[in-house]
Design brief:
By secondary structure, the protein is mostly beta strands. It has one domain: Porin. About 10% of the residues lie in helices and about 65% in strands. The protein contains two helices and eleven strands. A hairpin with a 2-residue loop joins β6 (about 120-135) and β7 (about 140-155).
């Protein structure tokens, strides 16, 4: 009987939540530069900067900087950890725009592979987040702590043997969260992307396309459906020290020219 009551309560809550559900449709623009600088055969320094706008490009959404270190366990599997800081724009009853801070540390596990000619990527990222609260329409000293789990799966489908011909890029990322203040929305958001990936130089590429972001707010009954234009750049410089390749003959030849 007790189990029946729990099931009935859960179903009733779900029904009421769906009945009160509201979805706000927005348009976003997301831009970022993501750097992976290889400093040894195993280690890389990673850093990225993000700008996100709402009402397409008219209004601020947030600015975000992140940095960390990445270790290549083997050619297909890597682990990483780092820190990020976000400046998030908020609208209140007394201020058209009020920025709050978010401190974040993260751990990441990434596995790459292939299905025939199609490249695959699986990424699990765990984030510990401290989000500054707004109290009485003002920025406060208190923070809301959450732990967020993000799983990304993506496919890169080549259409030509020429790597400078754009390939098709498909990806989906699910974000879930837990924490004392997370009562009604353990589901945070889902990001579904389709677009192209373009190699610009051997170390620089970008992806460009459409992303549907579906996000649940803290109340549990409010959702945001964001039609998003995404443009991400990826820079992968190789900072490893190059071995000297000069031979005795080339040194002799150079000496001869110096003598002239």
């Amino acid at each position: 009987m007790k189990s029946f009551r729990l099931i009935f309560t859960f179903l009733l809550f779900s029904f009421v939540s769906q009945a009160q559900k509201t979805v706000q449709t927005q348009s976003h623009f997301w831009w970022s530069i993501n750097t992976t600088a290889q400093v040894s055969n195993k280690w890389s320094i990673i850093a990225d900067a993000h700008i996100r706008r709402t009402n397409f490009m008219a209004n601020n959404s947030f600015y975000f900087l992140r940095a960390g270190a990445l270790y290549n366990v083997n050619k297909n599997f890597s682990v990483a950890a780092g820190y990020g800081h976000m400046w998030l724009a908020n609208k209140t009853a007394t201020a058209p725009e009020l920025f709050t801070n978010e401190e974040r540390i993260y751990q990441q596990f990434q596995l790459t592979g292939a299905i025939g000619k199609v490249s695959t990527l699986n990424r699990l990222r765990v984030e510990e987040r401290w989000v500054q609260k707004i109290v009485n329409n003002e920025v406060s000293d208190s923070h809301r702590y959450t732990t967020r789990f993000r799983y990304l799966y993506s496919l890169n489908i080549p259409v030509s043997k020429n790597k400078y011909i754009p390939s098709i890029n498909l990806a989906d990322e699910l974000l879930m969260q837990i924490g004392k203040d997370i009562i009604y929305n353990p589901f945070d958001q889902n990001r579904l992307f389709t677009g192209i990936k373009q190699q610009v130089t051997p170390s620089l590429s970008f992806d460009f396309g459409y992303m549907l972001v579906y996000q649940q707010k803290l109340s549990g009954s409010q959702y945001v459906k964001a039609n998003t234009l995404r443009w991400y750049f990826y820079w992968k410089p190789d900072l490893r020290k190059k071995k000297k390749t000069h031979t005795a003959a080339s040194q002799l030849s150079q000496s001869s020219f110096d003598d002239i």
